[in-house]
Design brief:
elongated
């Protein structure tokens, strides 16, 4: 489920015609809390939902969940930091509009 959520975060950028790598920087997971509720099986069509909980200058907090036919299988909250050259960096205003 973690990989599905990571891919869903990348898709936010792809949907806007951009890459998750922004001017030499990128988002990294700083903290994560996850609940594995129910299993899925190969071939299941999963729905990944996300909600921005908090947006700061150099980080953001997201809630994401994985669903199958209206049943929640997984939920997580993650804090993502934007970094360049390994250091926290301000998220540009254009990127902030994606969230």
């Amino acid at each position: 489920y973690l990989k599905f959520c990571e891919r869903a975060r990348s898709e936010i950028f792809f949907a806007h015609g951009r890459s998750p790598a922004i001017d030499g920087g990128h988002f990294v997971v700083r903290h994560i809390e996850a609940d594995f509720i129910k299993p899925a099986k190969l071939g299941d069509l999963l729905d990944i939902k996300g909600q921005l909980l908090e947006l700061k200058n150099a980080s953001l907090t997201l809630a994401q969940s994985v669903w199958l036919d209206g049943v929640k299988l997984f939920s997580m909250t993650s804090i993502l930091a934007f970094v360049k050259d390994g250091k926290p960096t301000r998220i540009d205003d254009d990127t902030k509009t994606f969230f």
